[in-house]
UniProtKB/TrEMBL annotation, chains A, B:
Keywords: DNA-binding, Transcription, Transcription regulation. Residues 14-117 form the Cyclic nucleotide-binding domain. It comes from Tianweitania sediminis. CDD domains: CAP_ED. One of its GO terms (cellular component) is cytosol. It comes from the Bacteria. It holds the Pfam family cNMP_binding. Residues 148-221 form the HTH crp-type domain. InterPro entries: cNMP-bd_dom, cNMP-bd_dom_sf, Env_Response_Regulators, HTH_CRP, RmlC-like_jellyroll, WH-like_DNA-bd_sf, WH_DNA-bd_sf. PANTHER family: CRP FAMILY TRANSCRIPTIONAL REGULATORY PROTEIN (PTHR24567), LISTERIOLYSIN REGULATORY PROTEIN (PTHR24567:SF28). This is Crp/Fnr family transcriptional regulator. GO terms for molecular function: DNA binding; DNA-binding transcription factor activity.
Length: 234, 234
């Protein structure tokens, strides 16, 4: 990568501790790419030629089943890596990533992964922490799907999303990209109908408000309590 | 570690490609420990002082919810690492590991992780592959919990367990450790009652047989088909 101002990358935890020389090594093999909202960055089962760092925008990572069902695995926000098939010894992408907003990514050839980690061990350690966090998120979802009522799962999914991608505003916590009810249904293993019913109820009680562009948690604490099962409210 | 015959470790993928000198580095800071069946190796939320490699036996990794519910995350079989909190930047164990059979583990102080990976990068790469595999297993379970009927989930859980820990015998594929119906219920997000009903049905049809010590898949192919949803049988 030639022209990107390195100072743009410094705020991201993955790059924060790196020496300038290491940063140089990492960036010289990267390409900057724009991905328009709605476009696909990589596709499940396709050959994993590249891995990515999201500089700006949002990605939606989905898994498709052989029956054609679709599950939303996660949103990727700026500062996160994705498509790390090479790092985990895979040749193909395990999921599909689509731009949920206009995105800018850094892309590296997968063949570079081992060389980069050898030269910059901190990169490997950072990627490992990211994988570990996702594994834990995944185990939390499994636990929720196995033991919790849908209303708690939905409250927890929204609370996590706010923690990952929300920002504090006057009226509460704002997630300022489109999170559809279908997305929420796929994230919580339930139907669109059920999500709509619960969300409408929460909206009428003033807990949150959402449209096609954003989701505003007006009473994040109440959602947290519903998620913990310590409130029958909902 | 002083006395362990290195040749015992060579067959495991994690150690297979390592130079003798690297092997030496890894093993000199390891302690060998026996864990009796039923004993706890590490506990969720406890300080993660050590990480482990399972030489022999089976571990059961479970997650407890704040409500006291319990979910079986996975069985760990010989040749796998676990308790890798240090590798993913955590101070505490995210889950509990109990011996499902008498076990022998290698244990390292968590403080050694970064030093070991620096000296032996292949160890980091191996651990990353292991994490990646688990992440994928977890996403598959999320997908199944979100989209599949319980009968398919149960067939898939048993098929995966056979792939991970089974061996071919005359009558089919044998998983030769105790997998209780409660374990299977926790692995598939359903009740003991439902698992018992389906397993009894499958047993009566000759698909499998189980007792407190083992599980024998007599018709692994049929279970595979049930898991894929391509058979109404069950």
């Amino acid at each position: 990568m030639s022209r990107l101002d390195r100072s743009l990358l410094r705020p991201f935890p993955l790059f924060r501790g790196l020496a300038d020389a290491d940063m140089e090594v990492i960036l010289e093999s990267a390409a900057t790419r724009r991905v328009a909202k709605g476009a696909t960055l990589f596709e499940q089962a396709a050959e994993a030629d590249e891995f990515f760092f999201l500089l700006d925008g949002r990605l939606k990572v989905m898994k498709f089943t052989s029956d054609g069902d679709q599950v939303l695995i996660r949103f990727v926000v700026a500062g996160e890596v994705c498509g790390m098939a090479a790092a985990i010894g895979r040749n193909t992408y395990p999921a599909t990533a689509k731009a949920a907003a206009d995105c800018v990514v850094l892309a590296w050839p997968s063949t570079m992964w081992l060389r980069l980690v050898e030269k910059v061990p901190a990169l490997g350690a950072g990627a490992m922490r990211a994988l570990g966090q996702r594994l834990e998120e995944a185990h939390t979802r499994i636990t929720e799907l196995s033991t919790e009522e849908v209303q708690r799962r939905l409250a927890n999914a929204i609370t996590r999303l706010a923690g990952q991608a929300g920002r504090k505003v006057d009226k509460g916590i704002l997630i300022d990209f489109a999170v559809t009810r279908q997305d929420l249904a796929e994230m919580t293993g339930t139907t669109l109908h059920t999500v709509s019913r619960i969300m409408s109820c929460w909206e009428s009680k003033g807990l949150l408000e959402g449209d096609r562009q954003h989701l505003l948690l007006r009473e994040p604490h109440k959602l947290l309590m519903i998620g913990e099962g310590s409130s029958a409210d909902g």
